[in-house]
Amino acid sequence: MIKITFPDNSVREYESGVTGFQIAESISPRLAQEVLAVSVNGQVTEINRPIITDAAIKLFKWDDPEGKHSFWHTSAHLMAEALQELYPGIQFGIGPAIESGFYYDVDPGETVIKETDFPAIEAKVMEIVARKENVVREEISKADALKLFTDKKETYKVELISDLEDGTITLYRQGNFVDLCKGPHLISVGEIKAFKITAVAGAYWRGDIKRKQLTRLYAISFPKKKMLDEYVELMEEAKKRDHRKIGKELELFTFSDTVGKGLPLWLPNGTALRLRLEDFLKQIQKRFGYLQVMTPHIGQKQLYVTSGHYAKYGQDSFQPIHTPEEGEEYLLKPMNCPHHCEIYKFKPRSYKDLPLRFAEFGTVYRYEQSGELHGLTRVRSFTQDDAHIFCRPDQIQEEFLKVMDIISIIFNALDFKNFEAQISLRDPNNKEKYIGSDEVWEKAESAIIDACKSKGLKAHVELGEAAFYGPKLDFMVKDAIGRKWQLGTIQVDYNLPERFQLEYVGEDNQKHRPVMIHRAPFGSMERFVAVLIEHTGGKFPLWLTPNQVSILPISERYNDYAKKVAADLEAQDLRVTIDDRNEKIGRKIRDNELKRIPYMIIVGEKEESNGEVSVRKQGEGDKGSMTADAFAKMINDEVRQMTISFIK
Ligand SMILES: [Zn+2]
Ligand SMILES: [Zn+2]
């Protein structure tokens, strides 16, 4: 008999050789039906693997990331099996599960796989599902694995095997398909009840632009047909909210190939929105004792050699700019921190000066492969709402709590009601990957954990997700249609103060090293605006929206009255636009609704002679007539109500 310990620490005895499935069955038949994977002493594996020693186990269902991972990874093999039947001779690269579904990189030789081929592949997948093939794990020696895939002329797999250590190699077979794979997998492809290919793209083998470009097929699968229907509906909603589409419709931003890929151009409406967001954060920061600073867009290469960024990212980034005469080398700044360290060093600092909080909306430049660029969420130039807090070690926790307060004010103001936090710590088994001693890491890690506890913030801990220079806390928001986005970050850093030899004179008259906290509640202005667009569908809150009111004269005859009303409203701080095109009023209303402007004012003969305006509210329709002054007061009251909690 062996002892099995469950996550709640209860212990049950089973016969040696019991499987995860049998354990689930012993608990409830329903659980046995739903269990997809099991972890045995922390290692996730198949539910039909015999457990032969005492073990701590955890059973995973669809709702667990581990369950989905196993399901989607098996679906990747299933898709590969279908492709192998449809495209004989096709070669396979890698096929991992991802955040939402999975992909497989394939080399179909001369054939091109297009969107029009998806239905045939999907039909073949469902045909294989009906065969209910079992997925079987096999351990294999390196020599045998190399022979097997060489015989199959699978050159990509052969390359992957060459990099593996003998004794660690496993295969997974189902039907006539065999794949090199670590697992874990479902035990039968019959569990996959719904399957859809979502996109096709190009992807360089091993992410190397010098190697062959393979075909990447993205897909998703579900244990119930209904779940796929819901997913498709969500994707349609997401398409309507795509920030690239709305960005164009509302004239917020654009890109120009002439200027360069991944370099956003902010149009007047988008700039107005962004500046308002920046002002909003500046006001909060002022209240929290931040000092604004400004730094240039470039820095000497040596600055980034000192900071360590050059060694880490230099080769994969924009290359140095050379001066014509002196042979100096400058880098486009990938981060603001080194500049801020030099500001700290401007004069001697005492313990009484700390904390010092330097804030800058700092534009940084990072090279991304052109294929990776995506709207405002993946760009080559972006502006961080950056700040660096230099503090004493005993102030870390308090500073951390204050940053958390700022983030919560922002999320409230912008109606991100659903958010969660992730604490990223070191991988305890791979400590040499990180800069800094054990002691400083442990201090920083516990400061973050304790800060979350004292705020009652539910945060999950991820080992091995920390940056190389320190642990961090990330905030993930859920948008209006349930998608998760990573936004703000707070990061403790003991490393840069060391590298830049930052000092302060303590109460003991001795020199000490300050601690640095990097933080960016929005993340970057580009990414945040993208998320905000997709969250709101372009219907920004009244206090933030570029235009609050659109004035629609019924005909050209009332254009002068419209201008007079506009001037009245602007004098009372409203943001106004006039639609004086020679169009029918119905058309103007429809067009302005698409512009998502919160209020429309209609002016015609009746309004002009009464000295009034007719008001329509986005989504609510007719609000009756009133004077321009009464309207301005109504809007200003509404804005005041919204902003009272965070502006004062
Ligand atoms: Zn696999
Ligand atoms: Zn920084």
How would you portray this structure in words?
This protein is α+β, with helices and mostly antiparallel strands and 648 residues long. The protein is built from 20 helices and 33 strands. α17 (559-571) links the parallel β29 and β30 (576-578).
List key phrases describing it.
globular; BirA Bifunctional Protein, domain 2; alpha+beta; 5-stranded mixed sheet; binds zinc ion; Ubiquitin-like (UB roll); 648 residues; 33 strands; Threonyl-tRNA Synthetase, Chain A, domain 2
Helix-strand blueprint:
Layout (H helix, E strand, L loop, with lengths): L1 E4 L5 E4 L5 H8 L1 H6 L2 E4 L2 E3 L9 E6 L4 H22 L4 E2 L4 E2 L2 E7 L10 H13 L5 E4 L2 H10 L3 H8 L7 E5 L2 E4 L13 E11 L8 E10 L2 H17 L1 H7 L3 E2 L10 E2 L1 H20 L3 E2 L5 E3 H7 L1 H5 L7 E2 L6 E4 L4 H8 L11 E10 L15 E11 L4 H18 L4 E8 L12 H18 L3 E5 L8 E7 L5 E10 L1 H5 L4 E2 L5 E2 L2 E6 L4 H12 L12 E5 L5 H13 L4 E3 L6 H10 L4 E5 L1 H6 L2 E5 L3 E6 L1 H20 L1
Parallel strand pairs: 1-5, 16-20, 22-23, 29-30, 29-31
Antiparallel strand pairs: 1-2, 3-4, 3-5, 6-8, 7-8, 8-13, 9-10, 10-11, 12-13, 14-15, 17-19, 18-19, 20-21, 21-28, 22-24, 24-25, 25-28, 26-27, 31-32, 32-33
Helix pairs in contact: 3-4, 5-6, 8-16, 13-14
